[in-house]
Design a protein that fits this description.
It is a single chain. The chain is an alpha+beta fold. It contains 26 helices and 36 strands. The strands form 7 sheets. The chain has a 7-stranded antiparallel β-sheet with strand order 13-12-18-17-16-14-15. Strands 1, 2, 3, 4, 5 and 6 form a 6-stranded antiparallel β-sheet that branches. The protein has a 6-stranded antiparallel β-sheet with strand order 21-20-19-24-23-22. α18 crosses α21. The termini are far apart. The N terminus is likely disordered.
């Protein structure tokens, strides 16, 4: 039988990627291009990024330098304004004594070294005097026209740009207004030469090979680090001015005055609208960048050319033997081949030729049709000619399936439904015994782990008698089909799981989806979105109008407008936010939507996701509310800061007055006899001013205790009317009220209060009325009962409290308008103390004010009946006492020793803790005054050891601190009392007047 030709068999091939037909030279050249061109492009891109990074670093450095230099110039301007402001308060200038003011300017050096001269002009700008010119007698005697303050406020200082023609005449001017008696009288100015600004920028840091320019608000150059002699006084280049515009800062490339281009960063000064420019030349930088990019491109081209040349050489070495093998066969290339793979190809061709010859000889003995079918069939075939299957003929497909190798016994395992099959159960063996096997699915497992799924068919071969003489078995590989089915099942399962996950995500994450088809006007909502709209948890299909009905009426038009604009702009996505309608609580949804269009640009479909952002919206609203609160708090803090500054200025004034009087009095005592009448007056001045300082310190300590909530009241029933009458009488006797007619109307009303703190309330209110009432204006004090309340009223006929100040009049450090001489005085804490003390007495304080005066009213609970008011016994200090003083400050020790000695007492003093303790135990005095902060032993340790040693005499702690905890620590250490420096003389006399205590006390 002749074999069938191979071309007569139809073979099935799986589709695979088809490469374009081309020569080896073409493929190698393509490889070289693919390998070199992207590398060159990447190198060029990296170099471009490096250039951009260096450009950003340059801009940041220049901007930082411009900012620091702008800060230096602004600091000089602010310093000049502050110095001019101080100079404007000169007494001669305020009094209109221009000659005296000019003499002071000539006599003293200028306050700022950068100033070239000081100029005084009238409000119209006419020069009255210059510090460098002699005074004009005509101008000195002329009346200076003063103008009212616009809006009641002084105009701001003026900083003028470059003035003068050129050269040494160029200068800038900084001027501040001068107020005299509430009117604008002068402008006090300082001229700063352009060279001063040149020196200032010379102190700053300039970029390498760069320059710094200072220009005024009109873009005229004031100072320049590069060629100042050429360009100071000139305008900046036109293109630079146009690009700057009104921007506060920036970075740009512009023209250089010397020619060429420059990279420059500028920073404007908000105070004067001057500007600082810092730049470097652009040409060297641009040339270097261009050179780097050119070298990179050249290197890429050289690499490409080298690769092309090498590929052509390799192609020649490969193509010549391949062409010979293709045209002449393996015998055409007998010699050595340089390419190892081509040599293997030649050997394989030789071996294939030999095998082909042997196969041809075997095939001639068999039927051509069967041989062709058997050897080329993709189905595995097994044929046996005996019932025992001792000799089995297998086609290549069967050999490949079962792993048979020539000369080796195949080792594989066949299974059915997971159960291993014995050899006699295999399909071929079963058919050889006469069985017919049809569509039996089996698995074949190889030792390497490979598993094939096969579909087996087997039929017996019968002899003439119908007995089995052999069998034929076929095996079809269904592994890929089964794997495809399994993948399909897994994909179907994953799809179901994904759908479940989407449902769970919509439930857990407050998320929903919708799909709008414009052609059918249908909107499909998922169950998650339906739930967000308050509907049943199932998918809902509705129209667009029906969907908008579930949107808040205020937001529906916004959504329509947003979508219309997106469609008009052919946008691919759109985001909008809205509120739902018809729900008990407000709900905000945010949507991100994808918009689909036809090829003609007609909108077709909207697919979007919606998320519940109610919590986020509430957080944003709360954030806006907190920002508003923070703004109000900042305004309040700024107001408190201004009040603090005024308090510090007034405190300095209040402390300087008594200190000045004390200093002058001490100087007088150093020059006259101690018994002189003037010495007596001077000592009275020192005593009065010392008490004034003590009262200031007491007020400060009291207000600190009140604010901290650490003040304690010693409350007892007292007659408020009688107490007010005594206190006002004392103030009249002291001369405090001598300039004002006083009217006192009191009733006998009783309250439960602290006498000392109530006296503070009355004293502060009456003193406040005196301060802010012109002389000869009457002051009225009333105390009367109003139901269950007691009212204390202090009425003055002053100028009243300004309306803007009235709500804050009881705040700390707040004071009314003060005249230049500060006659009113005070620290702005008195009324704060009044309010807090009234509140501690379960009361309140109120104020009414107008153009005819002010009325302060304190209201507190009244006591029924007339309790007995306690009286205090006092014992006059007529007996000389033994006193021990322990004080480390030499001046304080000497002063207190002298005072007690002049009063007739015997005083022994020590300067530190250990010697003081020894002196105290040796003398056993009637009274011991012990400072707390002592070297060696502290005052607390002195008191503890003295009490432990049996000393029972009176002991008083002396300290500069008067907090409640300081008093408590002194009492716990063994002291009988605590006094705050300076010591109250009257209180000390009361302690000296006490009877001696203990067996060791000396009289």
């Amino acid at each position: 039988m002749k074999p069938l030709p191979l071309q007569s068999l139809k073979r099935t091939h799986r589709p695979r990627l088809r490469w374009p037909v081309a020569s080896l030279r073409t493929y190698l050249l393509l490889v070289i291009v693919v390998a070199t061109v992207p590398l060159g492009a990447l190198t060029s891109w990296l170099m471009a990024q490096e250039i951009l990074a260096s450009r950003r670093q340059l801009s940041q450095g220049l901007i930082q330098t411009a900012g620091s230099l702008a800060l230096m110039v602004e600091r000089e301007q602010v310093s000049s304004i502050d110095a001019l402001t101080i100079l404007s308060h000169t007494t001669s200038l305020k009094e209109g004594n221009l000659a005296g003011f000019h003499a002071r300017l000539v006599r003293l050096p200028l306050i700022r070294p950068s100033w070239s001269r000081v100029v005084l002009t009238d409000p119209e700008g006419h020069t009255l005097l210059r510090s460098t010119d002699p005074v004009d007698p005509v101008l000195m005697g002329a009346a200076v026209p003063a103008r009212p303050l616009p809006g009641g406020m002084l105009p701001p200082p003026r900083i003028q740009g470059l003035r003068g023609a050129s050269g040494n005449d160029l200068f800038t001017r900084i001027a501040v207004p001068v107020e005299v008696q509430g009117r604008l009288a002068y402008w006090l100015a300082a001229d700063i030469h352009a060279s001063a600004w040149q020196s200032l920028i010379g102190q700053g840091h300039s970029p390498h090979a760069g320059y710094v320019t200072v220009f005024d608000e009109g873009y005229r150059i004031i100072a320049r680090s590069l060629h100042p002699e050429r360009f100071v006084g000139q305008m900046l280049p036109q293109d630079g001015r146009a690009r700057m515009g009104n921007k506060a800062s920036g970075f740009q490339k512009t023209s250089l005055l010397e020619g060429g281009d420059t990279y420059v960063a500028w920073q404007r000064i908000a105070l004067s609208q001057w500007g600082i420019g810092v730049g470097v030349a652009a040409t060297p930088l641009d040339r270097g960048n261009l050179w780097a990019i050119s070298m990179a491109v050249l290197a890429a081209l050289i690499s490409l050319l080298a690769g092309v040349g090498l590929s052509l050489f390799v192609v020649r070495r490969v193509n010549e033997p391949l062409h010979a093998l293709a045209t002449g066969g393996a015998s055409a290339v007998p010699g050595e081949i340089a390419v190892h793979e081509i040599a293997q190809l030649r050997d394989a061709m030789r071996s294939a030729e030999a095998q082909r010859e042997q196969a041809r000889e075997r095939l001639e003995a068999k039927a051509a049709e069967f041989e062709t079918l058997f050897n080329t069939s993709p189905i595995g075939l097994s044929i046996t000619q005996d019932p025992d299957c001792r000799v089995v003929l297998r086609n290549p497909a069967k050999v490949a399936m079962f792993g048979f190798r020539e000369g080796q016994v195949a080792s594989y395992e066949m299974l059915q439904n997971g159960r291993p099959l014995q050899p006699h159960e295999h399909p071929l063996q079963r058919a050889a015994r006469g069985e017919t096997v049809w569509n039996q699915e089996v698995e074949v497992r190889h030792p390497d782990g490979k598993v094939l799924r096969l579909l087996a068919h087997a039929v017996p071969l019968l002899d003439g008698h119908g007995h089995p003489r052999g069998a034929i078995a076929t095996y079809v590989d269904i592994t890929e089909r089964m794997l495809a089915q399994e993948r399909l099942m897994r994909a179907r399962t994953r799809l179901q799981d994904s759908q479940h996950l989407v449902e769970l995500a919509q439930e857990a994450g407050d998320v929903g989806f919708f799909d709008r088809v414009l052609a059918t006007d249908t909107v499909t909502m998922t169950s998650g979105l339906a739930r967000l709209f308050g509907l049943d948890r199932r998918a809902v299909e509705t129209s667009w109008v029906g969907w908008l009905a579930r949107v808040h009426p205020d937001d529906a038009p916004v959504i329509e407008a947003t979508l219309a604009q997106a469609w008009a702009e052919q946008a691919q996505q759109v985001v909008f936010k809205f509120r739902t309608a018809g729900q008990a609580e407000e709900r905000w949804l945010s949507s991100r939507t994808v918009m689909l269009y036809s090829t003609e640009g007609t909108p077709l479909r909207l697919i979007g996701v919606m998320v519940d952002v109610t919590a986020q919206q509430q957080v944003e609203q709360e954030r806006a509310r907190l920002i508003s609160q923070e703004h109000q708090a900042r305004l309040e803090a700024e107001r408190a800061n201004r009040a603090k500054d005024e308090f510090l200025a007034m405190l300095g004034h209040e402390l300087r007055n008594p200190l000045s009087a004390i200093s002058a009095a001490i100087e007088v005592l150093n020059r006259i006899s101690s018994q002189d009448e003037q010495a007596v007056k001077v000592r009275t001045i020192i005593t009065r001013q010392t008490r004034h300082l003590a009262r200031l310190m007491d007020d400060l300590m009291d207000v600190a205790r009140v604010i901290a909530g650490k003040i304690h009241l010693s409350r007892q029933p007292l007659n408020l009317g009688a107490m007010v009458g005594r206190l006002v009488h004392t103030m009249q006797v002291s001369g405090l009220l001598q300039a004002h007619p006083l009217s006192v109307h009191t009733e006998d009303v009783w309250v439960n209060g602290d006498a000392m703190r109530l006296e503070q309330i009355v004293n502060n209110l009456v003193t406040n009325a005196v301060k802010y009432s012109p002389p000869e204006r009457p002051i009225t004090v009333r105390v009367h009962r109003d139901g269950t309340k007691v009212k204390l009223e202090v009425i003055d006929q002053g100028f009243g409290i300004p309306a803007h100040l009235l709500p804050h009049i009881f705040d700390l450090f707040v004071q009314g308008e003060r005249t230049l001489d500060r006659r009113q005085g005070g620290l702005g804490i008195g009324l704060t103390l009044v309010r807090r003390l009234a509140e501690l007495h379960d009361g309140e304080v109120a104020v009414r004010s107008g153009t005819e005066g002010s009325v302060f009213t304190v209201t507190m609970p009244a006591l029924d009946g007339e309790p007995v008011e306690p009286t205090a016994d006092s014992v006059p200090a007529t007996t000389a006492r033994e006193v021990v003083l322990v004080e480390d400050n030499a001046d304080a020790r000497e002063a207190l020793t002298t005072m007690l000695t002049l009063q007739g007492h015997h005083v022994q003093a020590a300067a530190e803790g250990r010697s003081g303790l020894a002196l105290l135990l040796a003398r056993r005095p009637h009274l011991a005054l012990v400072d707390i902060g002592l070297p060696g032993l502290t005052g607390y340790e002195v008191a503890r050891q003295a009490r432990a040693a049996g000393h029972t005499g009176w002991m008083i702690a002396v300290s500069g601190y008067g907090q409640q905890q300081d008093v408590q620590l002194a009492l716990e250490a063994g002291f009988d009392a605590h006094m705050v420096k300076p010591i109250d003389g009257a209180a000390l006399e009361r302690w000296l007047a006490r009877a001696p205590r203990g067996p060791g006390a000396a009289a």
